[in-house]
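FAQ: What does a ligand-bound record look like?

Like this one, built around zinc ion:
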Amino acid sequence: MDNRAPWIITLVLMTTVCSTHALGDTSFKVIASFSVIKDLVKRVAGDSIGVTTIVPTGEDVHRWELQPPNALAVEEADIVFYNGYGLEPWIRHIEAMADDSLTLTALAESADYAPLTILVGQYQDNPDPHMWMDPKGAAAYVDVIEKTLIERYPEQAEAFTTRAAETREALALLDHQLRERLEGIPQTNRMLTTSEASMAYFARAYGFDYAAIWGIGSETIGSAQAMEAMSMLLSQQRPPALFYESTSPYIHMDAHARATELSLAGPLYTDTLSDTDGPAYNYPAMLRHNAELLHEYLGGARAEKQP
Ligand SMILES: [Zn+2]
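The answer part, i.e. the structure of the complex:
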């Protein structure tokens, strides 16, 4: 499209002035938009296919701005896996660059898994992109990853099928373990309150009421109106604790915690994994870390100690 052309020209110019050292590693044939999707893709792709990300681990996937090394990596790639449903507003620039040789796959939009709608804010009632926060949603991504890899690299079909089946099994086990860990939280404490509404799928899967200050990280976050709405809610109900995510600013929920004298806990990991030495070093570790934090702060431990 015409309006995309100036952006591409700028990007190409920027790319040419970069030193070779700064350029993306072109040995990666498969690109994932962010760390959580990379983890799932790696599980199916195996070690023979290099997988890299557009958004570095720890950064906010919603607000990323495409960099020249990203563009170079995309030029050399066979497949870009992204989430879709508006998670990556910057994906339009990659769509503009893509030619017939690039497979662009939106996992959430292709997954056989019913989307929820965004809870509050500017994008309320649009499909909620954070589907991977339910292991069953992640398993639906794995189905799409398997199919896409087989279409692109048919000679490795058998290996992809085997690893995808193993991954689905591991995700089912994880789901079972999370359910067991969280069932100790008393019914009256099952209120999950976060800064961004990134845990709606998790809340639905494990039986929590859910509230958040804003709907999605790409909107204007922490507006006076959104803060007021959360204040109103917290004046009507007192969850045992409030939570914030690693990619959300801390200050907004901290303000609510101070005003209400409720505990503040975090970070929950939702929109990125942590570094390899952190608590969310891979997908199962991310969800287990979140479950442990909820268990601790929503009274799971206290309830289980009672005779
Ligand atoms: Zn998010």
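Follow-up question: can I read anything off the structure? Yes, for example: The mean pLDDT is 91.
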